[in-house]
Structure formats: structure tokens, C-alpha cells
User: What shape does this take?
Amino acid sequence: QVQLVESGGGLVQPGGSLRLSCAASGFASNLNTMSWYRQAPGKERELVATITRAGGSRDYADSVKGRFTISRDNAKPTVYLQMNSLKPEDTAVYYCYAKDSRQFAYWGQGTQVTVSS
Assistant: This one.
């Protein structure tokens, strides 16, 4: 079993930055792809960014390309989402997601990000 715990959310003004963290515990050493999703009120959950185990491949939603950066530290193990130039439309609950080597999927509880002046 794997547990994912997000942190780093909060209230920020437009144009500001936040760094989200997702710490994995339990049988976390065999996690492969890790991702960040978000869900805004009244909208479906959407994929924001994905990173492979070695970090060699990263993919981003078009809406965040050039502003967000996903990274990971397998020694901890933790995945990060650096969010710059935040916009009001980035307001959402952000969720961490991971798959292990058996293709079991895990979700974190979510962290709220609010971009508002």
C-alpha cells in the first residue's frame, strides 16, 4: 500500500508562484509514473503534468506549458510541481497520482490552490 500526501497549496495573487509537494510513503520505492491532476469547481479532473520514474520524460497540459515544472526525488520519494505566473483559471484542488510496478494506482487527498487578487 502507498500513501500520497500533498502540501504547499494556498492563496496567491495572479502572477505569483507556488510549489506543491507530494510525499509518498508505504511501499513507495517501486512507484513509476507520477502525475499532478487538478479539479476546478464544476469541472472534470484534468491531467496537469506527468513525469516518468527516471525523470527523463515530462508531459504537460497545454494550459500550463512554460509556466509549470514537474520534478521528482526518488530518494525521498517526493514529486513536486513548481507553478509560476499563476492565473485565476489555475484555481483548483490539485491531486497527486502515482502508479506502481504492478499498475496499481494511488491518489492523494488534494491540496487547494486559489489564485485571486
The first strand starts at residue 2 and ends at 7. The mean pLDDT is 94. The radius of gyration is 13 Å.
